[in-house]
Amino acid sequence: MKLIPFNIAPYTGLEDKFVLQAVKQEKISGDGIFTKKCHDWFTNKLGVDKVLLTTSCTHALEMSAILLNISEGDEVIMPSYTFVSTANAFVLRGAKIVFIDIRPDTMNIDETKIEQAITKKTKAIVPVHYAGVACEMDVIMAIANKHNLFVVEDAAQGMQSFYKGRPLGTIGHLGTFSFHDSKNYTSGGEGGLLIVNHKSFNDRAEIIREKGTNRADFFKGHVNKYSWVDIGSSYLIGELGAAYLYAQLQSAEIINKDRLETWGKYSKQLFILQKEGFISLPSIPKNIEHNAHMFYIKTKNVVIRDQLIIFLKLNNINSAFHYIPLHSSTAGLKHGFFSGSDNYTTSESERLVRLPMYYGIKNDQVKYISNKILDFYA
């Protein structure tokens, strides 16, 4: 078997055509024809009024922090088991990050630990939908409403996932997505999306995205010239990236179906190892539809995890562990602290191995990977 990569960025065949069309347009710097097409697709698909394509999910999170007026001394609650951008966006505005434990079943923030971490300084809660599996959003929103807090959904991995029928990213006050080439849909490398679910943020979000100017109003004809009116940065994705992404959105359901089928095959073929107590498979709670963003298994401990990764590598299979918990990192110790006990964050993250998962992976490759894992445990 030839080397099986951990990830291959999705490619549908339409990308070339749309990117070339974008190149020939007069406006390629952003907010052109393909950006509008993407915006229309997302507003219709997600059932929201305001979306803004960005250069990355990191930048969508940074915009969220600015919109919430996060400042020195504020506290923001989030799981420690997440990518650094989730924390960085708020640290850049001066916030202290309050890390709390995760649930061992989904690797998501433990909603039962949030309320005890709230203080007078708390400004926002940032749930991270790990692997495209939804956090317990009803509980989180109830806590936020009770304490007058904002909720920013980090749905970087969650496009085409749902919580009780509602698309991820549309439940909190703000939602963010990633179109990095490791995600289910990509804009050709980097890209992101900000979902604005609180109408009071609509106008300011456009200003922040346009370097702090009211340039968007100028192009709408609302003002006869534009000027600097607020803080902001250059968060507009270029038209080439938007065109690449729009091509993928035309095949969104095909890509989603393909990934879910692969996820199901892994689960079926490796179930015997869970039944015999060797590994744990991903858990999908009731009333949640996931998007098969990743397939992972959890070994008994970190030693076995590392041995399995090496074994797979020797058999031409690239697998990977995932995040090192932020609260144990150098910057995490400086810019945040762990509230409560670390019962699961470290121990569960040390067990996790991600298997190759991408659009177009072949059935015989999935079977080969599964058989090699069975061989390892045999």
Please name the CATH architecture of the largest domain. Answer: 3-Layer(aba) Sandwich
CATH fold node name of the largest domain? Aspartate Aminotransferase, domain 2
Mean pLDDT, nearest integer? Answer: 97
Strands ordered across the widest β-sheet: 1-9-8-5-4-2-3-12
What summary fits the major beta sheet?
8 strands, mixed
Q: Helix amount, in percent?
A: 25-40%
CA gyration radius, whole angstroms: 21 Å
What is the H level of CATH, i.e. the homologous superfamily of the largest domain? Type I PLP-dependent aspartate aminotransferase-like (Major domain)
- The coarse silhouette is globular
How many domains make up the 3D coordinates? 2
Summed up, the helix count is 13
Number of strands: 13
Question: What portion of residues belong to β-strands?
Answer: 5-15%
